[in-house]
Structure formats: C-alpha cells, structure tokens
Amino acid sequence: MNYQGDRTTGFASPAGDNIEGTIDLMSAALDLRQPSRYPVRVEGDALLGRSIRHGDILVVDSAVAPRAGVVVVASVGDELRVCELTQRAGEWWLRSSSPQASPVQVDDDTDVAIWAVATGLVRTDV
Amino acid sequence: MRVYGLIDGNSFYCSCQRAFEPRLKRRPVVVLSNNDGCAIARTREAKALGVKMGDAWHIARKRPESQPVVWYSSNYALYADMSRRMYQVLAERLPAVEPYSIDEMFLDLSDLPGDLHERCRQIRQDVAEHAKIPTCIGWGPTKTIAKLANGLAKDHAELDGLCDLTDPAVRQDWYRHTSIDEVWGIGRQTKQKLLGAGIETIADFVTLDAKTVRQMLTVVGARVQAELRGQSCLPLSDIAATRKSIASTRTFGRLLLKWEEIREAVAHYANRAAEKLREDGLEAAHLSVLMQTNPHNGDPWYAKHAAVTIEPTSDARDLIRHATALGRAIWLPGYRYFKAGVILSDLRPTGSQGLMFAFRDPVQSATVMAALDAVNARFGSGTLRPGSTGLKRTWSPRQSLLSARYTTRLEEIVTARSW
Prior knowledge:
The structure holds two protein chains of two kinds.
Chain A: H1 25-30, E1 37-43, E2 57-61, E3 71-76, E4 79-88, E5 91-95, E6 104-105, E7 112-122
Antiparallel strand pairs in A: 1-2, 2-7, 3-4, 3-7, 4-5, 5-6
Chain B: E1 4-9, H1 12-20, E2 29-32, E3 39-42, H2 44-48, H3 57-60, E4 70-73, H4 76-91, E5 97-101, E6 104-108, H5 116-130, E7 135-140, H6 143-155, E8 162-164, H7 168-177, H8 188-196, H9 202-207, H10 210-228, E9 245-256, H11 259-279, E10 282-293, E11 303-313, H12 316-330, E12 337-349, H13 362-379, E13 414-418
Parallel strand pairs in B: 2-4, 7-8
Antiparallel strand pairs in B: 1-6, 1-7, 2-3, 5-6, 9-12, 10-11, 10-12
C-alpha cells in the first residue's frame, strides 16, 4: 500500500533518496487550517474579467500583505466586497470592475478596510 | 528569568461574531447563553448601554436602552474554531502555550531575546490580524501575577492592552490601588474573610504573615499569596491531559413532562458524550444520568441522579441503552423537567482491557462507530445518528439568533459581492 517507488525487494531502487510524495494541492494555497485563512463565497459576476464567477469559493488570507493588482475581500460600510486593489500615491484604493463606479479609498475613518487577500479559488460548479 | 503571560480575547464571543460581520463593528453586541437564556458576553458598547452579565434576554431586550443591541445565540462551533486559530498563532511564535479556557491562554515568555513589551505588542497585532480577535496581554513572574496584569490591561485603556508586572516596584504600586477580589483564586467567601480581617488591597494581603494566611485560608490561600509575592507555584501545563469525565448536560428548550421526550434528549446526550469519548480514543466504565425541575420558577423541586458501572465501551448504542434505562428509573411522572444530562467517567484508552464476556463484538463495534464518525466528520455533526435520539427533537434548546458557522460549514461561509 505504501510503495512510493523506493522499497523494492530485489534490486535497490535508484530513486530511494529522491522520494517527494504526491503534490499536495491543498497545503500551498488552500489550506484552511492556517489560522489566517478563511473561505468566502462570491456573489455576482462583476469579476468575470479576472475569471472569478458567481458561486466560486475564494480562499482568502488576512495575514498576507496587500499588493497592487491583487483581488481582496474588503469591508465597505456594512458589506463585504470582492474587488481589485490598486495603489495611488502610497494610498490603497478599491477599484470596481465597472468603469462608471469611482474607486473607494481604504480608510478606517470611512469604514473601508481590507478584510483579507485572495490566495486561491475553488470552483465546485464547473 | 521565568516570565508567564496571559492573553485573552476581548469580549471573545462577540469578537468572533464581529470578525465576519462588518455591520457589527461599532454596534453593541451581546451573546446569549445556551437556550437564549441570559447575556454571557458583551461588547464595550453593550456594557455602556447597561446590559449586565447574566441579564435575562426576554427582559433585557424590552428595555428601551437596549434597542440598538444586536443579540446572538451562542455559536460554539464558531467560537471553538476561532479559539483554535488564536492558539495556533501563539503556538507558532512562543515556546509554550497553555489554553486555559476558550478565550484565555497562558504563555511562556521566559528568556526571549529583545524587548518583551515590543514582542507582546507584536503578538497582539498578529492575533488581531490572523485570527481577527482583539486581545489584552499581561505578564509577570507567576501565573497569578500574569492574570492580574491581564485584568489591569483590560480595565485601563491607557495601557493599550498591555501590562507588564515583572518589576516588583511597579507591582507594589498596583497592589496598593487594587482590590483583593481582582486576584485569581480569591472567591467571594475568601474575600469576605479577608475583608473581615481588614484586608482590602492586594498590598494588605501580600504583607500578611504567611503562617497567618495559611491558617486563615489553608494552603490554597498561601499559594495565592506566594504567587503574588513573585514565587511561582503553578507551572505551565500542556493542552489538558486525558479527561477524567465527559459530561453532556443541557437545559431543554421548554419544560418536558413526558418520558418519551426526555428519553430522546437523554439518548441524544449519551450519543454526544459517546462522540467526545471516541474523539479522545477513550472508553467509559461508569455512566450517570441526572434529571431535574426548574429551581427558579416555583415548580416543586425534584432532582435525581443515578449511576451504574458498565462494561468499558465507547459504542453509542451501548451508552444510549444504559443511559435511557437509568433515566427511566429516575423519571417520575407529574414533574415538569427542566434539564437532564449524561456523565461518563472511569475513562480509559480504547481496548485497554480485554473482555471475557463482551456484549458486543468489539471489532464490529469499532467498525460501525468509525463509519458513523466518518460520515459526520464529512457531512456535519448529527448527519447520521441513532434513531433513538429523535427526529423532531421538540426538546432541543432554543437558538433563535444563531449566526452562520462561517469557518466549519461550507454551506454557511461568508459571502461577498463582487464589485
């Protein structure tokens, strides 16, 4: 059951020292046991341009440092939004996918805050 | 030098709710006890509106002042997962962490390089960032001092959530101004005794002769005094060692008269206790059942407790059979029952004792229980359960204000609108 290409009975496996195990897709970007990882369900198709669909599950990380261009979950007033993050003159802004909506500045005083940064995406409805 | 720390989550249950709901950020939040009975956690804003610990919900919610309050049923699945996150953040940063309660953890801060104050500030920030829980940290040469420091950090906003009591001079200063009942381990009775002897502040208490303290308050009080003097008597423990007993007791959602309904509840409690038992790889050789009427509503008082020694088992079916038989023996008609419970004790590792005349084939039993646990782990607790635990469950506690289990159930995770 536990044969990994190493413990042969006749000829010693030349790969004995190079066993790496199967790729663990979970641990890299999706592992929700990390204390800073949270799952978030996406509502709406506004981010189709970034291949994020309605019903997708984003895995977000609240300890990842924000960078310009990443997708974040942000709290704006009473609601949580999924959107793109941009930087202008050292300040963070949330950018809407719609050209009509103007960007919103991340600012504790106006109750706009980054909740977590998207690190992975799971689509169960393919 | 030995340094102990204590970190605790501010209004922990409320903070868990707030972590997932931005609308709660500045609003008063109160979490209610099991069965939506009374207030057990309040945010600062809720305290300011006069909501007290233990206030009954059905009365408090009608007061005009409490109109802005957002009330929640306790969501222990969520709180346990957030406590797990908090522990993990700490365990990755410190040599030893002891989870003392769901929202308090003792820390080993001994001999760490660099400035301790700065390190604690960083830890506090990391917990807030990763686990989304605001905290306070207090530290000093003993656990009792760390606990006191934590309380001071919480009560004095100017300390910015951090309180260092390692310096004896700083300690003395606080001791002079702090009442003896702020001390961990000083209960109401002890406090009365001390007040009777004219001892009000911690400074009064630590200057007492150790012999006098021992005579007055036994070794327990003497230990508290030694700890306050900076002599460590309580070492850091690991995660709680093997449990001594497992209890599953609850207040019913309403008063129950009929044995059929109580039987379902007792079977359910036995099933839950059996699950906890198997989680820890244990078997129980002793089982007891309790049942009682409400002591506060004027009903005639009836409370009964019965126990039996059983073949060591963790099989839900065996435990349910024993529990319902015992329950039937102590149930009397005519009373309105308020609460019941099942307690398992004399716990031992699974299979530690071979049975000569086993009631059940142990291999078959283990297979069935493993399948049951696997289904419930995958599809959620209670998906598959013994029929005796009921379908309608008319006795189950009220949780009318339950929030989603954001981190433990896929169908209940947070949603965010794409923008």
